[in-house]
Design brief:
Blueprint: H1 3-25, E1 34-38, H2 44-50, E2 56-59, H3 62-71, E3 75-78, H4 87-93, E4 96-100, H5 103-112, E5 120-124, H6 141-149, E6 156-161, H7 174-191, E7 202-204, H8 211-216, E8 221-224, H9 226-229
Parallel strand pairs: 1-2, 1-8, 2-3, 3-4, 4-5, 5-6, 6-7
Helix pairs in contact: 3-4, 6-7
């Protein structure tokens, strides 16, 4: 195994160990939480090496997602901001789009759906209420939920996504994650009697600095980049 391979394997094992411990603390089955390996800042050679031992990846930019998904067959997620003029690219190459942040964007995704392909999406919610972040407002979603459910026939709405504010203390993110889970539960109840058949199973929340409280609060998808590629440099082979 190359030095790059050894570093990536060690880092992946360390993250997965911490994931299992967080699941144990919260009484969860570790199989209910999946790691999305974020490759935004990773060199292609590193991603190729990681793809030998792991197969779920996330990209922030639709163009890079398209390029890398064609080079490396795997399960690719789009986790970054999506502009409406890039929707077709995302729909064609992403197994799951985490960042549908408005009704207009949901409509654009629906317009790109094909008869034999129903794009899978998460609704991005700005739980931290930061002006710098996009997403539906927590207070907004219940009021427009009927309008969102109308798209379920063409778009597979699987759950919610959020990002907590940056902090050196991961515990400061916990209230954000708990609020997203409560919102998901509330919306699931509202959808229970709807003919759409929507099932909000996924909660995408938690990154390298705060994924453990995210798991303890119900995350099913965590987005990890820097912890996986820690210790690598352009000179690493």
């Amino acid at each position: 195994m190359s030095e790059t391979g050894r570093i990536l394997h060690r880092n992946l094992m360390a993250v997965q160990s911490r994931m299992r411990a967080a699941c144990e603390r919260s009484g969860r089955d570790p199989r209910t939480v999946r790691l999305v390996a974020v490759t935004k800042y990773a060199e292609l050679s590193w991603v190729r090496t990681l793809a030998e031992i792991y197969t779920v990846f996330g990209e922030n930019r639709p163009q890079q997602l398209a390029e890398r998904s064609e080079l490396l067959p795997a399960e690719w997620h789009l986790i970054g901001h999506l502009q409406r003029n890039k929707v077709n690219l995302a729909v064609r190459h992403a197994s799951l789009i985490h960042s549908v942040d408005s009704l207009r964007l949901l409509e654009a995704v629906s317009d790109c759906a094909a008869e034999n392909h129903r794009p899978a999406v998460l609704l991005q919610v700005n739980v931290s209420r930061e002006a710098s972040k996009t997403g539906f407002a927590v207070e907004e979603l219940p009021g427009i939920w009927e309008s969102i459910l109308a798209y379920q026939g063409r778009v597979d709405i699987r759950g919610l996504m959020t990002m907590a504010a940056e902090s050196a203390d991961p515990e400061e993110a916990r209230p954000v994650f708990a609020e997203l889970r409560r919102l998901r539960d509330r919306l699931s109840e509202a959808a229970a009697t709807h003919a759409s058949g929507i099932c909000l199973n996924e909660l995408s929340m938690g990154m390298s600095g705060d994924f453990e409280p995210a798991i303890e609060e119900g995350a099913t998808l965590i987005r990890i980049g820097s912890l996986l590629f820690e210790g690598l440099s352009s000179a690493t082979v």
